[in-house]
Amino acid sequence: MKYLILSATLIATLGLAACERPAAPAPTPETVTVVVPGPAGATGATGATGASGTAGADGATAPAGAAGPQGKTGAAGSDGTNGANGTDGAKGDTGKTGGTIVVVPAAK
Questions:
Q1: CA distance 14 to 6
Q2: What confidence tens digit (pLDDT) does each residue in 23-45 have?
Q3: Exposure pattern of 79-103 as b/e (b: 16+ CB <10 Å)?
């Protein structure tokens, strides 16, 4: 008898689990409210111009610095070397004697 009650309970459980369940109702979408801005208002009047600021004071001039000491005179440079002697020029021909020179006067 103990097995009979256990078997009946098992068959009833499997029979109920095999049944099709009803589908859950789909959720309804919520209404979303979109806020639309209204037209812009009129432009306000321009504000007054502010007063000009005062000019700043001039800065002070710095005093001139003292002059530095004079530099020392440099040492004298060394003497240059003497130049080489030049070469002798070519000798000219000796003069000829006894020729006659004719001078023709210019035509007028």
A1: 13
A2: 777 777 777 777 888 888 888 88
A3: eeeeeeeeeeeeeeeeeeeeeeeee
